[in-house]
Design brief:
This protein has 442 residues and is of the alpha/beta class. Helices cover 29% and strands 20% of the residues. A hairpin with a 4-residue loop joins strand 1 and strand 2. Helix 4 crosses helix 7 and helix 7 packs parallel to helix 8. The protein starts with a strand and ends in a 13-residue tail after the last strand.
C-alpha cells in the first residue's frame, strides 16, 4: 500500500530521545519510523530537515464557547487556532450555554463539530446535583471524554460546591473525573468583602491560596473515601503541589498546569495586561510559578492544559470583578514550552511527555501521544530557528489577542499533520477540517 505521506529528515522527539528519522504514514497511521526511508514515487513528502518533529499535541482543557457564546469563539475558530499551534486533539469543557449536562447536549456538540473541527476532539459532561447519579451511565458515550466538576464558581453556572453532591458524582461511574478545585464558601466570603475601589490586581487575593488549598484537600479526602480517580485542573499554588506529594495517592490523583501559571507572574502581569490575564484560579507570584515549573520538570504534574478561555476585549474592559476570567492559549503552548527548553528548565523530551504522552495516558486516549508504529499519523513539524517576537497576525483565535504577543520565540510550528494530512502549513490552513471524535481505551 502506498504511503499517504513521508515526513522526511527531521529530528523526531519522544519522551525518551530525539533522533533523526523519517516518519512514514499509511492509511492515516504511522507505518514506520526509521532513517533514510527510500523514496516512493508518487508519495507526497514533507521536508523536515533542520526541524523538530513532535507528536501532535493534545490539549486536555479548552473552552471553545459553542453553543451560546460564539461571539467569543466557536468550534471552528478555536480548533483552527489549535492546529496552528500543533494541537491535533482537544478535550472541550461543558460550561457553554446551555451547559453540556445531558446526552442530548453532548450529541449536539458532536454534530456541530462534524465537518468544522480542525482537530480530533471529545467533550466533557458537566456535573450537577440533578445529573450526579446518571453520569456513570453517560460518561462512556461516544465522543465523551469524561465528567467535569466545578467546586468553585467560574465562567458559567455549573457548580458542585458541597461534599455530599461531589461524593455522589465520584461514586457514579469509573472514568477519571476532571475537577476545578476552588472552595466556593471561601470564595463567596472574600468576594463579599471586596471593596468598591478594587481592581484586577486584587484577583489573586480574592481567589487566594487558601481557596485553592481547601478545595484540593476536600477533594483528596473524598478520593480516599470513594476510590475514584480524579484529575486536578490548573494547579496554581506551591502549597497544592506539596499537599499532592504528601498525600501520595498515586494514579488516583493526577494534575495539570496551564502555561499561564508557568510564564506569567503577579503583580507585574496585572500591571501590564490588566484583566486580559485574569483567570480562575489566578496567576500568582513568582514563588508559585517557580514551584510549578519544578513540579512539571520532575513529573509531579502529568500534563499541560491551556485552559483556552477567550472573551472579547470589550468584555475584558469591564470593571473588576465584572470582567470575565479566561485567557486564550491553545495556539501558544508549544511555542512557550520551547522557550522553556531554550532557558534550561525543560528538555525536548519533557515537552513530548507533558503535551503528548501525558494527556493521552491521563485520559486513556487511543492512538495518540507518540510517533510510533500503529499510532495515529499526527505530527507537528517545528522550525527551531524561528526566534522573532510572536506577531499578533499569527493568532487564529477569534479573541485576536494574547499576553504572549511580542515574546521572543525559540521555535514555532511550520506544519501540522492530522492522520497523514497536512492540515496547517506556513501560517495558513492547508486542507479542509478533518477532525473526528477521539477514541478511548477506558
Amino acid at each position: 500500500m502506498p504511503a499517504d505521506l513521508i515526513v522526511r529528515g527531521g529530528r523526531v522527539v519522544s519522551t525518551e530521545s530525539v533522533v533523526e528519522a523519517d516518519v512514514v504514514i499509511r492509511a492515516g497511521v504511522v507505518a514506520e519510523v526509521a532513517p533514510n526511508v527510500p523514496h516512493q514515487p508518487g508519495t507526497p513528502e514533507l521536508d523536515a530537515r533542520g526541524c523538530l518533529v513532535f507528536p501532535g499535541l493534545i490539549d486536555p482543557q479548552v473552552h471553545f464557547r459553542e453553543p451560546g457564546l460564539e461571539h467569543k469563539e466557536d468550534l471552528a475558530s478555536g480548533s483552527l487556532a489549535a492546529v496552528a499551534g500543533g494541537v491535533t486533539a482537544f478535550l472541550e469543557m461543558p460550561n457553554t450555554r446551555p451547559a453540556t449536562t445531558t446526552p442530548e447536549r453532548l450529541a449536539d456538540k458532536l454534530a456541530r463539530a462534524r465537518g468544522r473541527a480542525w482537530a480530533d476532539h471529545a467533550f466533557f459532561l458537566g456535573a450537577t446535583a440533578e445529573n450526579a447519579d446518571r453520569l456513570g451511565e453517560w460518561e462512556t458515550l461516544p465522543g465523551c471524554c469524561g465528567v467535569k466538576v466545578f467546586m468553585g464558581s467560574s465562567t458559567g453556572d455549573l457548580l458542585v460546591p458541597d461534599d455530599e453532591t461531589l461524593a455522589r458524582v465520584l461514586r457514579s461511574g469509573r472514568r477519571r473525573v476532571a475537577v476545578h478545585a476552588e472552595d466556593e464558601p471561601r470564595l463567596r466570603e472574600r468576594l463579599a468583602a471586596l471593596g468598591a475601589e478594587a481592581d484586577v490586581r486584587a484577583h489573586p487575593d480574592v481567589r487566594d491560596v487558601e481557596c485553592a488549598l481547601r478545595a484540593t484537600r476536600r477533594l483528596l479526602d473524598l478520593v480516599e473515601r470513594t476510590g475514584r480517580r480524579v484529575h486536578l485542573l490548573h494547579v496554581s499554588t506551591a502549597e497544592e503541589i506539596e499537599l499532592l506529594r504528601e498525600r501520595a495517592l498515586g494514579d488516583l490523583v493526577t494534575c495539570e498546569v496551564t502555561p499561564n501559571h508557568l510564564f506569567l507572574a503577579a503583580p507585574d502581569c496585572y500591571a501590564t495586561f490588566g484583566a486580559r490575564v485574569q483567570m480562575n484560579p489566578p496567576v500568582r507570584d513568582a514563588r508559585h510559578r517557580d514551584a510549578l515549573r519544578a513540579a512539571l520538570a520532575d513529573g509531579t504534574i502529568a500534563c499541560i492544559g491551556s485552559d483556552h478561555a477567550p472573551h472579547t476585549l470589550a468584555e475584558k474592559a469591564l470593571p473588576y470583578p465584572r470582567s470575565p476570567s479566561g485567557i486564550p492559549g491553545v495556539q501558544t503552548i508549544l511555542g512557550l514550552l520551547l522557550t522553556a527548553v531554550r532557558d534550561g528548565w525543560l528538555r525536548l523530551t519533557d515537552v513530548a511527555r507533558v503535551c503528548c504522552a501525558g494527556p493521552a495516558a491521563v485520559w486513556g486516549i487511543a492512538g495518540k501521544g507518540a510517533i510510533a508504529k500503529g499510532m495515529d499519523g499526527d505530527v507537528v513539524v517545528v522550525d527551531p530557528r524561528v526566534g522573532e517576537p510572536l506577531p499578533e497576525e499569527w493568532l487564529r483565535s477569534r479573541a485576536g489577542y494574547s499576553p504572549y504577543v511580542g515574546t521572543p520565540l525559540a521555535g514555532w510550528p511550520r506544519a501540522t499533520v492530522l492522520r497523514g494530512v497536512v492540515t496547517y502549513r506556513d501560517h495558513a490552513p492547508a486542507a479542509a477540517p478533518l477532525g473526528q471524535p477521539l477514541r478511548f481505551t477506558r
